[in-house]
């Protein structure tokens, strides 16, 4: 295992994060604060409690998930797409590193960035609402797994993308709707039965549900199924990446 | 000298059926500088990319320092440094950071003393904290070399290191290459510029259409294939070559004042003495006599064109 290489990629990617600190950190924190103001304070004051939790606090896990998923995808997809775009990918391909090491470096960095943002948003939420975390360890496990699995998805998107437009396409057209419709701002039980059934096909429902359980011990689906869903999603992404490197798809001629 | 690179029957075909490499064989010895010459699309970059792991070979065997590039890719790639043709660098990164990154990527522990030595060797030390976008084209190319050297490779590939570089900078680059050779690095470079191969290479290979047409010691190649021309310049113009000189295969220049005689420098008798005697007997008055040696460029053009002719036939 070329640990030095993993560390080099990780540090190089993190350096980009800190170099563009305003963009990397301030903008997600600012937009999340706006969500709290609009959904939590303005609209939330007119909504009753959801499953025994005040609406402002209820949306905290969903908001964190929204940011974490978006950030993990965009950081990981950009992280690997940019070297392809400017041509520096030659160095990765000619280095004595395995696909696992490349993935560990890029996905690790993207997940770490998303995690930092998630923790900061959680911290920010304390200024707006009273949030209790019933199972801090489970919360952390869900957060970390979500960061990693969506960074893996972002990595695949970055490998697949042939242009900056395509790089934005999947997050914009698929991921954002899935997250919004995954119960970030509501409980699935508030939907009509038909939509409840349809929602069960949305993988993000399981993540948000599990994450919310770690906070309030209320969930749309049993916690075990949530864990199983995120583990399955991670395995699926890993298998896709293994196939990409094995065949050299879109990176090695 | 033992071989550091062994390429056997290397073939590369793309999905559209294009054959970029058609069974290339090549052996590079430790410590030498080999220049690979070839026209655009000859397969030079594909050859380098395949050895370095950027492109996957269709068939054939490549060993670097005795390590197979596929089965023992870690050991093989650790020995190789690659300077690509295009200037591929992160514009917003600092020079020193990008060089450190390359060293780490190749699994070598952080060593600022080595990075400093490399940057000084390439006259980049003063620019170490500059962002890459602030550097000139020549400096950026040096950064690429610094990155390739950061993990102390034994075999360095330079893919057209002086393409689009002005004459002064090119000579500068040749000095860098000579310095690298002195430090024990084996160098394989591709180039369009024959003078570059002539100036710095120990051996010269010629590639065209995915085939290695020849690989030979540069001096031996030039001596073997080196034809010399003798231009006999006359005081009076000639309409045709006199009968007495018909056996020399002379060419009358367009100015009607020059007779050109080609001869082999290695031949026992060049025929010059007899030619000059016969010229004198023919009553022609000489104004000047000049000799010219064919350059590597002429040899190269001859080879590539001869190959064209075979293809056409």
Could you describe the 3D structure shown?
The complex is a heterodimer of chains A (253) and B (313). Chain A has one domain. Chain A is mostly helical. In chain A, helix 3 packs parallel to helix 6, helix 5 packs across helix 6 and helix 6 packs antiparallel against helix 9. The mean pLDDT of chain A is 89. Chain A contains 10 helices and no strands. The longest helix of chain A has 32 residues. With 313 residues, chain B is an alpha/beta fold. Chain B folds into 2 domains: 221 residues, P-loop containing nucleotide triphosphate hydrolases (Rossmann fold); 67 residues, 2-Layer Sandwich (Alpha-Beta Plaits). Chain B has 10 helices and 14 strands. In chain B, the strands form 3 sheets. Chain B has a 6-stranded mixed beta sheet, with helices on both faces. A 4-stranded antiparallel beta sheet of chain B has the order 2-1-4-5. Chain B has a 4-stranded antiparallel beta sheet with strand order 12-13-11-14. Chain B starts with a strand and ends with a helix. The mean pLDDT of chain B is 88. Chains A and B meet through helix 1 and helix 4 of A and helix 2 and helix 3 of B.
> What is the CATH T-level topology of the largest domain in chain B?
Rossmann fold
Distance between the termini of chain A: 25 Å
The string of secondary-structure elements of chain B, in order, is EEEHEEHEHHHEHEHEEHEEEHEH
Question: Do you know the CATH architecture of the largest domain in chain B?
Answer: 3-Layer(aba) Sandwich
Low-pLDDT runs of chain A: none
For the secondary structure, the number of strands of chain A is 0
Helix share, percent of chain B = 25-40%
Report the mean per-residue pLDDT of chain A as an integer.
89
Structural class of chain B: alpha/beta
> How large is the share of residues in beta strands of chain A?
under 5%
Output the number of helix runs of chain B: 10
How many helices of chain A?
A: 10
List the quaternary state of the chains: heterodimer
**Strand sequence of the main sheet of chain B, in spatial order?**
6-7-8-3-9-10
Quick one: which chains have the greatest interface?
A-B, 25 and 34 residues
Termini separation of chain B: 40 Å
Output the CATH class name of the largest domain in chain B: Alpha Beta
Average per-residue pLDDT of chain B, rounded, comes to 88
């Amino acid at each position: 295992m070329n640990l030095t290489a993993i560390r080099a990629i990780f540090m190089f990617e993190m350096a980009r994060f800190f170099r563009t600190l305003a963009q990397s950190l301030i903008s997600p924190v600012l937009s999340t604060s706006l969500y709290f103001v609009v959904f939590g304070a303005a609209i939330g004051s007119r909504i009753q409690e959801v499953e025994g939790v005040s609406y402002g606090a209820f949306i905290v896990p969903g908001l964190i998930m929204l940011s974490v998923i978006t950030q993990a995808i965009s950081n990981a997809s950009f992280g690997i797409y940019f070297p392809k775009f400017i041509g520096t990918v030659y160095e990765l391909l000619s280095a004595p590193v395995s696909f696992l090491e490349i993935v560990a470096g890029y996905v690790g960095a993207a997940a770490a960035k998303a995690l930092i943002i998630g923790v900061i948003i959680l911290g920010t939420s304390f200024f707006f609402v009273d949030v209790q975390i019933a199972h801090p360890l489970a919360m952390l496990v869900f957060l970390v797994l979500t960061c990693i699995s969506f960074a893996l998805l972002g990595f695949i998107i970055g490998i697949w993308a042939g242009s900056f437009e395509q790089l934005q396409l999947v997050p914009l057209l698929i991921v954002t709707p899935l997250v919004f419709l995954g119960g970030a701002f509501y409980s699935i039980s508030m939907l009509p039965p038909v939509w409840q059934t349809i929602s069960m096909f949305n993988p993000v429902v399981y993540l948000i549900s599990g994450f919310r359980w770690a906070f309030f011990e209320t969930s749309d689906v049993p916690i075990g199924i949530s864990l199983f869903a995120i583990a399955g999603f991670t395995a699926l992404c890993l298998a896709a990446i293994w196939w990409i490197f094995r065949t050299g798809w879109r990176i090695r001629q | 000298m033992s071989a550091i690179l062994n390429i056997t029957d290397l073939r590369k075909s793309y999905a559209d059926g294009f054959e970029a490499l058609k069974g290339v064989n090549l052996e590079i010895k430790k410590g030498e500088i080999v220049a690979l010459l070839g026209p655009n699309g000859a397969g030079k970059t594909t050859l380098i990319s395949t050895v370095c792991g950027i492109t996957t070979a269709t068939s054939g065997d490549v060993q670097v320092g005795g390590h197979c590039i596929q089965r023992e890719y870690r050991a093989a790639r650790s020995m190789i440094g690659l300077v690509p043709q295009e200037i591929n660098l992160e514009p917003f990164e600092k020079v020193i950071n990008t060089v450190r990154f390359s060293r780490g990527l190749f699994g070598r522990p952080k060593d600022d003393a080595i990075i400093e030595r490399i940057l000084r060797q390439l006259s980049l030390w003063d620019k170490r904290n500059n962002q890459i976008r602030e550097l000139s084209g020549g400096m950026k190319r040096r950064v690429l070399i610094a990155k390739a050297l950061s993990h102390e490779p034994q075999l360095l590939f330079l893919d057209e290191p002086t393409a689009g570089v002005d004459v002064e900078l090119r000579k500068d680059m040749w000095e860098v290459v000579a310095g690298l050779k002195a430090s024990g690095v084996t160098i394989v470079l591709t180039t369009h510029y024959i003078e570059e191969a002539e100036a710095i290479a120990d051996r010269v290979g010629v590639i065209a259409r995915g085939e290695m047409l020849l690989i030979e010691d540069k001096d031996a190649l030039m001596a073997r294939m080196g034809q010399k021309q003798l231009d006999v310049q006359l005081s009076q113009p000639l309409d045709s070559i006199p009968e007495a000189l018909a056996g020399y295969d002379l060419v009358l220049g367009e100015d009607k004042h020059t007779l050109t005689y080609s001869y082999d420098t290695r031949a026992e008798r060049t025929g010059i003495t007899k030619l000059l005697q016969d010229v004198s007997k023919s009553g022609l008055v000489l104004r000047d006599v000049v000799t010219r040696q064919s350059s590597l460029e002429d040899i190269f053009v001859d080879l590539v064109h001869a190959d064209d002719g075979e293809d056409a036939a």
